[in-house]
Design brief:
The protein has eleven helices and seven strands. With 270 residues, the protein is of the alpha/beta class. Strands 3-2-1-4-5-7-6 form a seven-stranded mixed sheet, sandwiched between helices. It binds S-adenosylmethionine.
């Protein structure tokens, strides 16, 4: 089994995605989407950004490595009656089913960053973008003090070291690495731009309940708990995550969760 696929089919990312819908919608509203635009959402999950893009009239294909998330996305499209939105399985490192120059816009929000072989990922995204098109990525930033980088850092501290040659997904949050990958794919450096942006995780109950969702349903956190359990350290990991989520929560409503997380927004016009 492909470990990248196994990681994301473990648990149920739709449970985490439910806390990210508002930010997904806001991000999409800002992308200048017009009816009929052809959009590829890569590492789309169950459609946090693909669904609002389709609601704006774009013709959207969501591609994701996890079969359970593809199925969940197709169910959401059907429930919403969106015939201009479909999801299919695929690997961002090798989009062999997709033709050259076929999309006006590639969106990948915390998606393609998790695929192995980042140089292949950049090459594939550029290949399927039509001349004059655009790629927009959202990537978490290594060592950033906000939520997701800290969850991944904490999780790594409890997990065995990655295999030799493993390239951390977080390197997609380093501007120099991003430039190196897209220039290797033939894009001039001045066609690559960066901005800091914020996603917000919202949950209708206290931060500890959102930690429970991550512990039960988010593959990377589930793996960290498995590793912690093997070392008798689950309570320690649990306490560390609850303290982190509580410290980052800035919800004005007691008993609910609203946590901002900074990411690197990358725009490429090949
Ligand atoms: C953090 S989730 C984000 C999902 C979605 N973009 C969202 O905003 O809700 C990461 C997604 O990337 C997908 N993914 C990981 N590796 C992938 C790969 N090699 N090719 C395609 N998708 C991949 C996972 O299955 C998962 O759905």
């Amino acid at each position: 089994m492909n470990p990248n696929k196994a990681l994301w089919e473990k648990g149920d990312f739709t449970r985490i995605a439910a806390s990210m819908r508002d930010s997904g919608e806001k991000l999409v509203a800002d992308l200048g989407i017009t009816p009929g635009m052809k959009i590829l959402d890569l590492g789309c999950g169950d459609g946090t950004t693909a669904l609002p893009a389709a609601k704006l009239g774009a013709d959207v294909l969501g591609v994701d490595i996890a079969s359970n998330l593809v199925a969940a996305g197709n169910r959401r499209a059907q429930d919403e009656g969106l015939t201009n939105l479909r999801f299919q399985e695929g690997d961002a490192s090798n989009l062999e089913d997709l033709s050259d120059d076929s999309f006006d816009l590639i969106v990948s929000i915390f998606g393609a960053m998790f695929a192995p072989k980042p140089f292949d990922v950049a090459k594939e995204m550029v290949r399927v973008t039509r001349p004059g098109g655009r790629i927009v990525m959202g990537n978490w930033i290594p060592n950033d003090p906000t939520l997701v980088a800290q969850i991944l850092k904490t999780s790594a501290a409890y997990s065995p070291p990655p295999p030799e040659g493993f390239v951390s997904p977080m390197t997609w949050g380093v501007e120099d690495d991003v430039v190196e990958r897209f220039t290797a794919a033939g894009v001039p450096a001045d066609k690559i731009s960066f901005a800091r942006d914020t996603y917000r995780f919202t949950f209708p109950s206290p931060p500890a309940d959102l930690v429970a969702e991550f512990r039960s349903y988010y593959g990377p956190t589930m793996n960290a708990f498995d590793a912690a359990e093997a070392n008798g350290r689950t309570d320690e990991l649990q306490d560390e995550l609850v303290a982190l989520f509580n410290a980052q929560n800035d919800s004005p409503n007691p008993g609910t969760t609203s946590i901002p997380a900074t990411f690197l927004r990358v725009t490429v016009t090949p």
